[in-house]
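Q: I'm writing up a methods section and want to include an example of the input and output format. Could you take the sequence below and give the corresponding predicted structure tokens, formatted cleanly so I can copy it straight into the document?
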Amino acid sequence: MKTKWMLTIFGIWYVVEGISVFFTSGGFYFMSYGFGIFCIVLGLICLMIRNEHPSRLRNSILFIFFLSALGISLIAYYSQWSGLYMDSLVGYIIPTIWLIVAIGFLLASRRSSTLPRVRNLQ
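A: Here is the clean output for your methods example:
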């Protein structure tokens, strides 16, 4: 998948997920609202950098997205494994999706860092 399409899809995904927190949480709970704002900001960053040329900054942002998605995946795997999430094997689907997203961000950052650089001959 091209990096631009990946950033567009996950930018929209993060924004929708962040907005959904405000409608699904029961009452005011700081951590859920904080996660919602965090997701909205991540989504906006994805949407803003999708048309940028490959650079160190863009690769760093993609790597940070990799770490974020990997952390969510590992926490979700632990939650399922320890029995805090679901009693069936279906609970492993969401952590696996987050792991695939993390791998996608890692591959996108690695692929765009290996693009040929244009040298400035001044």
